[in-house]
Here is the input.
Amino acid sequence: MESTAAEELLAATVVALPSDEHGYLLPAGEQLSVPFVKVADPGWLDTQVGLQAQRWPTVDRRVLATLWWYSVSQVFLTPALAALLVTGRALSPKPSDVHLHWLSDGRVFTARSTAVLEGPDPVASVAAALRASLKMAIPAVARTGDTRELPLWAIATDSLANRLLWVGRACDEVDRATLLAARVVDLIGSPMPAPRFVDIDRRPPRTGQVRFVRRASCCLVYLEPGEAKCASCPRLTPANRTALLRTAADFR
Here is the structure.
């Protein structure tokens, strides 16, 4: 079977990355392809959020919806952003062009795009398509979780920043990746907050710095008994956050 333009662009993106970084772009195991537009289906989305209770059985609906969006918001935009940074062209993140690789327990680890965005400015095209997807998904998740939309927009910013930072690290283009994150979010516009980054010094005898996303959002996982706040959680004190990120920097 002849490959499509989207498949060829994905292949060009994957081959440019180290093999141990392919996991965010290529599915593994038996997974069902679910169109991203299903997020706008209240019944389907209600079921997905409910499935989160298998892993987080003691938290409320607001937290379950937030955790679901924290995961999916990182996944659906990955093909578009990775291709854009690596090749200068973009796989489409439009709702109708993205398919989630869905597991029966509701988890989603990867996604694929079925189309390539065309136009004179690939960055602007990606931003416009992302805005369409976010404007579809965020109100739906907010309704299902009975929560506010603004925290979900902040999660989307951090997801975008994290995924571009991941690609930037993988291809040694961290500065270009963080600049691209800022430009894409600026083009998407309000109410999406600007991405923030912080450079953390490695501890001796290692030298240099490691860049991390300075999160504006919280996934709320710490509300689950036995779970702690993430290393970059904005709810940590600045001193605690820096200490945890410095430990993380030792492993990069």
